[in-house]
Amino acid sequence: MRITCPYCGARDAQEFGYLGDANPQRPDGMDATEAAMHDYVHLRDNPAGRHRELWYHGAGCHAWLVVTRDTRTHAIEAVEVARKTKAGAAA
Amino acid sequence: MADATTAIWAPRSAWAGILHEGHIGLAGSTSITIAARDGLGIASLIAPAAGEAALAEAVKAAFGLDLPATPAIARAGHHAAVWAGPGQWLLLAETRSGFSDALQALSGVAAVAEQSSGRAALRLSGPRIRDALAKGCMLDLHPVAFPVGMAALTSIAHIGVHLWRAQDCPEGAVFEIMVARSFAGSFWSWLSASVAEFGCDIVASGASIGRG
Amino acid sequence: MSTQASNKQPCRLGSGGVIDRTQTRSFRFDGKRYEGYAGDTLASALLANGIRLVGRSFKYHRPRGILSAGPEEPNALVELRAGARREPNTRATVAELYHGLEARSQNRWPSLAFDLLSVNGLVSPALVAGFYYKTFMWPASFWEKLYEPLIRRAAGLGRAAGHEDPDHYEKAFAFCDLLVIGGGPAGLSAALAAGRSGARVILCDEDFRLGGRLLTEKREIDARAGSEWIADALAELASMPDVTIMPRSTVYGVYDHGIYGVVERVSDHLPVPSAHQPRQRAWRINARRAILAAGAIERPIVFAGNDTPGVMLAGAVRAYLNRYGVLPGRQAVVFTTGDDGWATARDLAAAGASVSAIVDPRREIDSALTLLAGKIGARVITGVVASASGGRALRSITVREASGREHSIPCDLLAVSNGWNPTLHLTSHQNTRPVWDESIHAFVPDALPAGLAVAGSAAGRLSLAQALEDGARLGAEAASACGFTPRAEMQPPKTDPESLGLSPVWRVKGGKGKAFVDFQNDVTDGDIELAAREGFKPVEHLKRYTTLGMATDQGKTSNIAGLAIMAEQTAKTIPQTGTTIFRPPYTPVAIGALAGHHRARDFRPTRLSPTHDWSREQGAVFVEAGPWLRAQYYPRPGESDWLTTVNREVRAVRSTVGICDVSTLGKIDIQGADAAEFLERVYINGWKALPVGKARYGLMLREDGFVMDDGTTSRLSETHFLMTTTTANAGKVMQHLEFCHQVLWPDLDVAMVSVSEQWAQASIAGPKARAVLQGVVDPQHDLSNEAFPYLAARAVTVGGGLPARLFRISFSGELAYELAVPAEQGEAMMRALMAAGAEHGITPYGTEALGVMRIEKGHVAGNELSGQTTARDLGLGKMMSSKKDYVGRLMAKRAALVEADRPIFVGFRPVNRSERLRAGAHFIGIGKAATMENDEGYMTSVAYSPHLGHWMGLGLLRNGQARIGERVRAFDPVRNGDIEVEICNPVFLDPEGARLHG
């Protein structure tokens, strides 16, 4: 696969690390219930199709990215900078 | 500083014991030339939140450099600035002398961290250098895709590198490349194997950053 | 042309072909010396020498010859080269002949001509489809002892070298606008069209000579010989600077987003690689567009004895005649179901062979063809070949005429033609299936990987005219798609006429003997019928039950016949029966090529500390720590074992002073107005109140509540911190911090960058540490206990004004400091410290001594930070702040993670102090059985303490903290250990910390 980093341009997927679903938002640890935090840490959808997911350009500019990818075809629809989208998935 | 003390504390090049002047690979042919780039002043600059413009101004005032907004290298006088990630640059100086003091001009407008000692840099040139780099570099270094002045952070042989195309000479492209110091030996293991078929001269350093 | 029976190459034609008769190549096959020419393959050279028996088959040890002239070859597999370079299962049909080539037939014993295990053919009822599943099922113990060795002896395909590969391999990356796969007429046309527009083109061909089928056929383009057209095309392509021609390069796989895997056989045509050349190079080609112009593969016909040496594909016969100048037989019969086979009869006759018959089941034959038959004196028989016989060499065939009458014809060559399958393998690598095209009776590409187009025969457009036209059109289209302007349409070249009529026959029933579908895996038509009878009808079941198409040739010549027979058995059509999907690689790829430079020491990069060479000078033994090599201990002459050395190093630190390189720790520079706030959120403990100039121990969790890493972090100014991480987790922590900053809290004003490489760092530990430092740090810095107390962290200078940082932190429990200088002065720092400490007997120590001392002090390290421990488990629960949110805070409080019964960090010592402890031993209650139910935890770290005079251990024990003073068993079945240990406080030495603060 090739992923087009918004900063660095099209790069081989070997340069990136994968984290997973970009949608879950981290609840505030002081206010959240244990159940909400559990959902955030552990529960993930596994869609066949369009998926927003977090990738890390570790061998490049170190940017965390939100990649919208079709899990069936690997076609990439969009690559955004996580910092600007407030993605928020689990550490 | 007493001379004797200075002698004890003489810096040791990242390439010491690794790079030796002379010829390697195919005998009777030199299609690639490699020179160590020792003694550079290097510092990482990171702009604070919403502080890129102020940093750019300060860099312009102190060094006459325009910070590149994209992966590229900008040069002015004895200094250069290379894009090193969003809101991040490496400031390069030809020499160390006065470098730490010069960095003071940026305190308050950037997170400054000196890295002069932490990078091992090489200057690579010759008609076959692109062919040698292709054995590990996953980037298209053809001039239409990677023109003079362009820079990139990428990885070669599982080692993170920072490289830029410094210049195009009649003898081919000139690239400068930096790896983290601890990887110098492993990087050389890959590079020396990759240049061998073309024949390669290893020469003393001397040229200035980004120039022939 | 005429046959000229030279003594040396009795079947070599006197002229013709694209071999160089002035360049002799001598080679050995099964130890005997032969000669061929430059431009030969091993197969063509063997045939030129009259060698037809080349190997024995996989299961039945049947004699086998040469079926094809290309990469599809299922029979002529040999061991190439000798010694460490020996390579089994090499296809003789693609092995380029070189001087001194050495090949051996495989799978025969004791010799090729006389093979004892061909008796397998006689007991063949036991070896039918599914025999693995049936015969060898019972009893289970027989499998290892009897069946497997037996099968390994009897079945197999050559022997691996068994030595380390002496050659070098490379990887390489390339980029282009257009990748052309195949250098035949379609591929060359495509490359020309795109190249002329200025596009960057790479053309790969698996062959060593470009031209494809045009090399093997007597064809004309624009009224000139095909060879001239090829030469012109190659010359024009060579003149284009952005066109790269890669012969000997197989495109083996199609991957996402225009990535193509290619293996270039740089040196396989040489006895050994030239100086500084790899044997092979694995390319990863990034192409915006690609054109598959891989041609087609001819299909055999299934009939009894169709594997007899001398039965050959008709197109291969033409290749040997026209490309290699070899006459594969003198008395030939052609068995064809289409017009194409008749060209073989023509070319054989022209080369001087006698063609006694052309057997074609079709009732309607083009009159031009029958006229040709008359001209060459070949009898035309409307019928089929029912069987071939002769054992090690074809002697005769039995023809069954339409009337059913059978008769025998003597011959030494049977050329078989049954139509062509497009070489479409690459089109299905992205999980798309081909579709059946009734007009050519073959599967053709349907849905294609993005960016890939298919030209000529590979698309099922089998004529030369179509190949040239497709190539030119698709090449221009690809160039346009990449933003180039193709030159104005040029008139496609004119070709001589060809006829392509075909009515395939998949098998001929009723012959005497075995009829093979898959030659390489010895699958017969009977096996497929058996699979149908036993219910293995779907194509994927058929494949696995019979092993059809599962050999290294991946069924290139067998899949369609197998499907056709299954279709017949189940009264379906071939498209209804389906087809399997081809996966990479198209042909076998050596693992060495995929590994490239990265093997042995270069398997992964090694990181060396800035003090590495100094440590080596001191005689250090190094140990791998993640990617790093660290000094493990520094043996001195006379020290016979590592424990003696380590004990000396520990004693030196505890009694006077030692130095240890700690440069490998991760160092992260963290700055910004919100830097302290950021640390609050990633560490469990508090940071805002940390004074400038002070260091603090910090512990960070993963969001699931388990410990991620630990280290000391120092405050250099209000807005500037320096974090240290463990050596092993440095990269992981950096990634985690960047995640926290960029994804979780992008609004925080904080900047972080790794400075691990910038600083060399040494620990100076022991009662004399301060005295040593005073000889190195510039005198204006007051290092007294009052001025520079425990956990002080400040910038200092050394050597008369050189920048350095000094931290008073201790892992050993002694008075200790860490001094950091720029990495290029790391060695100088070690020498300066050694010089300053000489009068105190300063001793370098390594990671072993460091480990002993941290265990003596009960500090956790990598063994305890296992990813399964919480702060509470490690006795660090008190550090967890209740006043703030931080990563892992909530999840660490889950009920199961705060149970009293969880394994908790404690110390252990042997009840009998002379006994040795072992890390990994499990704790079992005294008197209880060593079962999983009674497992109470395990020993994480052990060391011999020279100070205490016995072994000590750290470990995780159920409710451990409450059980101090009790005893348990440390049960270690791996090393037969089972001893009683006392549970104790994990701090074995100086629990008050008097030494630390001295």
State the CATH architecture of the largest domain in chain B. 2-Layer Sandwich
The major pleated sheet of chain B works out as:
7 strands, mixed
Q: What CATH first level of the largest domain in chain B would be assigned? A: Alpha Beta
Q: Beta-sheet strand percentage of chain B?
A: 25-35%
Report low-confidence residues of chain A grouped into runs of 5 or more: none
Helix and strand content put the structural class of chain A at mainly beta
Note the run of SSEs of chain A as H and E. EEEHEEEH
Topology:
The complex is a heterotrimer of chains A (91), B (212) and C (998).
Chain A: E1 2-5, E2 9-12, E3 17-21, H1 34-42, E4 50-56, E5 64-70, E6 76-81, H2 82-85
Chain B: H1 3-8, E1 22-24, E2 32-36, E3 41-46, H2 52-63, E4 73-76, E5 79-83, E6 88-93, H3 99-103, E7 111-114, E8 119-125, H4 129-133, E9 151-156, E10 159-169, E11 172-180, H5 184-195, E12 200-203
Parallel strand pairs in B: 2-12
Antiparallel strand pairs in B: 1-12, 2-8, 3-6, 3-7, 4-5, 5-6, 8-11, 9-10, 10-11
Chain C: E1 20-29, E2 32-38, H1 42-48, E3 55-56, E4 63-64, E5 77-80, E6 87-91, E7 101-105, H2 131-134, H3 140-154, E8 169-181, H4 185-196, E9 201-204, E10 220-221, E11 224-225, H5 226-238, E12 243-246, E13 249-255, E14 259-264, E15 280-292, E16 296-298, E17 311-313, H6 314-323, E18 331-336, H7 340-350, E19 354-359, H8 367-376, E20 379-381, E21 383-389, E22 396-401, E23 406-410, E24 413-417, E25 420-422, E26 435-437, E27 442-444, E28 452-454, H9 464-481, E29 516-518, E30 523-524, H10 525-533, H11 539-546, H12 559-569, H13 574-577, H14 591-595, E31 607-608, H15 612-617, E32 621-625, E33 628-633, H16 642-655, E34 658-661, E35 666-671, H17 675-682, E36 695-701, E37 707-717, E38 720-725, H18 730-744, E39 751-754, E40 759-765, H19 769-774, E41 793-798, E42 802-807, E43 816-822, H20 826-837, E44 843-844, H21 847-856, E45 903-910, E46 922-924, E47 935-945, E48 950-958, E49 967-972, E50 977-984
Parallel strand pairs in C: 1-7, 8-9, 8-15, 9-12, 15-28, 17-24, 18-19, 18-24, 19-20, 31-33, 34-44
Antiparallel strand pairs in C: 1-2, 3-4, 5-6, 5-7, 10-11, 13-14, 14-15, 16-25, 21-22, 22-23, 26-27, 29-30, 32-33, 34-40, 35-38, 35-39, 36-37, 37-38, 40-43, 41-42, 42-43, 45-48, 45-50, 46-47, 46-49, 47-48, 49-50
